[in-house]
Amino acid sequence: PQIYLRALSDTPNRPPRSAGSMYTSSEETSRARARSGPTMKRSLRWHDLVGFGIGGMVGAGVFVTSGRASRLYAGPAVVLSYAIAGLCALLSAFCYTEFAVEMPVAGGAFSYIRVTFGEFLAFLTGANLIIDYVLSNAAVARGFTAYLGTALGLSTRTHLRFTIRTLPDGYNEMDLIAVAVILLLTLVICYSTRESSWLNMVLTVVHILFIVFVIVVGFWRGEWKNFTEPANPKNPGGFFPFGVSGVFNGAAMVYLSYIGYDAVSTMAEEVKDPEKNIPIGISGSVVLVTVLYCLMAASMSALLPYDMIDPEAPFSGAFKNGSAGWRWVSNIIGVGASFGILTSLLVAMLGQARYMCVIGRSCVVPTWFAKVNASTSTPVNASAFLGIFTAAIALFTDLNILLNLVSIGTLFVFYMVANAVIYRRYVNHGATNPWPTLSFLFCFSLTSLIFTLLWQFTPSGKTKAFMLGSCIIVAIFVVQLFHFMVPQARKPEFWGVPLMPWIPSVSIFLNIFLLGSLDRPSYVRFGFFSGLTVLVYVMYSVHSSFDAEKNGSLGVKECVDTPENVISKV
Predict the structure, then answer these.
(1) Which residues, including other chains, have CB under 8 Å from residue 216's CB and lie 6 or more apart?
(2) CA distance 269 to 38
(3) Which regions of 9-84 does DSSP assign to beta strands (E)?
(4) Secondary structure in 3-state letters for 212-253
(5) Residue 556 DSSP class
(6) Residues in domain Cationic amino acid transporter C-terminal (predicted)?
């Protein structure tokens, strides 16, 4: 009843707020949350969040990116690449944590960006993030079939999939196993978040035991000389065969293995004592995964010289190419990778449904997606729709095509959240001038972009080193000047990012740097879906959005409860 009484007191004809202004009371959140009907049950604790975080991150990615990063970019120093990528992920996790503790609602980045920069940017970033979730989940599901074939010793193409030759290449291999896995997990997440947590815990524990097995066997069979000596003497040797730049290029590639912790923040509405459990859950999972990744990379480097590592299947390839007595380990790796895929897929599907649920609460998409089932306390409509959509794509789309389309939306959202946490700390609408903060964010992002372009396209030499050093000096000066000249407008009540504004500024820089490492198809996809998102927003969302109705610019529609409806519901 309190939710609806707050909605009743908040008249839709009040004066319009300025663009990008923030919601400063729980009343706004309560009104939006009321769109879902029954509330989501708060049943998760810090150990559940750590389990979801580990399950979401430790998936099939580490089994692919490790080999590519070591063979092509970093060599044995791929261990440091994982450490650098883990630091970047931890900084972004800090930004997510501050928002999640202050606003423990479902929706994650969409909710944070909406209350900071307004509805349009939130819809743009949220829509791209959901597309990334759907495509990556479809890719991971097809990867499950491939690793299952490895575990069973079967050919994926001939035994586990069937081909329709009348369809074009890349879209003609039907994968019914991937469809079945997605639909089964959809039923699980529709039934209960708590039961989903237990399933995730079981799968995650099994997967971690498998990872420990791989690490132990890798160090047992490995040789320390492989950290410095290549198999072919003509190839560069040493721990840094490709130099320091190779370590950072490797970090850009393996960073994709960390994507998944952001899904934890989307479950904030279902967490008990969020101010205590969320910081431990998000940051703890990133730290633990970083340690596991570094140990896995070290064991891989000990098994084989970097120039003998299989870029596609580094761990299973290391054992398969070894003595016959150890080839059974390759099958074990297939089983373990399958468990990892299931855990990451489960967490990602939980996250994508909660993103869609909160977007539906804002009325920028039909409010049908926002409904929470009264008996299960889960967003069943959003879960079922996205599950079926993901299964349809996974049925016929090739893995390589899907992998070329993912990641850019997620990195863009990480960049936006880091900007948002600075803006929220230093700007209080009606009391402070936002332009100094906006100017700082623009100048720092521009400096980071120039650094990234120089890193990618300038030939190596003293000139490149001088220009890169100049960019770093300018970036440090801009941050220091902003730190001394602009005071913080608010202090977090429970938990805040330390060393403000340095940590989110480093996060901004690293996300721009990693965005610069992506290929052209990623930007084409991002441009296409962004344009489609803008079209949907202009043609539909802006006319029915929660913000527009709340400002009184479009009148009261069905999306806003009338006093009569509110009283009847109370």
Answers:
(1) none
(2) 12
(3) none
(4) HHHHHHHHHHCCHHHHCCCCCCCCCCCCCCCHHHHHHHHHHH
(5) -
(6) 495-545
- As to burial, measured by CB atoms within 10 angstroms (0-12 exposed, 13-18 middle, 19+ buried), residue 499 is exposed
pLDDT confidence band for 480 (50 / 70 / 90)? very high
Residue 162 pairs with which residues in a beta bridge? 174
Q: Which pLDDT score, from 0 to 100, does residue 19 have? A: 37
Describe the chain by its helix, strand, coil percentages, rounded to 5.
75, 0, 25
Q: Would you say how long the chain is, in residues?
A: 570
Phi/psi of residue 44, nearest 5 degrees: -100, 145
* pLDDT confidence tier of residue 332, bands split at 50, 70 and 90: confident
Contacting residues for 510 by C-beta, under 8 A, at least 6 apart: 88, 91
Q: Where along the chain do its domains lie?
A: 42-421
Cross-strand bridge partners of residue 435: none
Instruction: Kindly report the pTM of this predicted structure.
Output: 0.77
Look up residue 432 and give its DSSP letter: S
3-class DSSP state for residue 44?
strand
Closest CA to 399 of 161, 185, 184: 161
Contacts of 523 (CB under 8 A, 6+ apart): 408
Is 70 exceeded by the pLDDT of residue 513? Answer: yes
pLDDT exceeds 90 at position 350 = no
Buried b (16+ CB within 10 A) or exposed e, 289-313: bbebbbbbbbbbbbbbbbbbbbeeb
Nearest to 276 by CA among 33, 108, 47: 47
- Cβ 46 vs Cβ 112: under 8 Å: no
Distance CA 446, CA 450 (A): 6
| SS3 annotation, 485-525 | HCCCCCCCCCCCCCCCCHHHHHHHHHHHHHHCCCCHHHHHH
Distance CA 364, CA 180 (A): 31
Other beta carbons less than 10 A from residue 566's beta carbon:
19
Q: 3-state SS of 151-213?
A: HHCCCHHHHHCEECCCCCCCCCEECHHHHHHHHHHHHHHHHCHHHHHHHHHHHHHHHHHHHHH
User: What single string gives the DSSP state of each residue in 451-476?
Assistant: HHHHHHHSPSSHHHHHHHHHHHHHHH
pLDDT range class, residue 225, cuts 50, 70, 90: confident
Strand partners for 173:
163
Give yes or no for residue 253 having a pLDDT over 90: no
What fold, for 42-421? Amino acid/polyamine transporter I (1.20.1740)
pLDDT score, position 554: 40
Q: Which two tokens stand for residue 212?
A: 């420990």
CA distances from 545 to 297, 557, 559 (A): 47, 10, 8
Rounded Cα gap, residues 388 and 297, in angstroms = 36
549 pLDDT above the threshold of 70: no
Q: Is the peptide bond before 436 cis (omega within 30 degrees of 0)?
A: no
Bridge partners (DSSP) listed for residue 44: 271
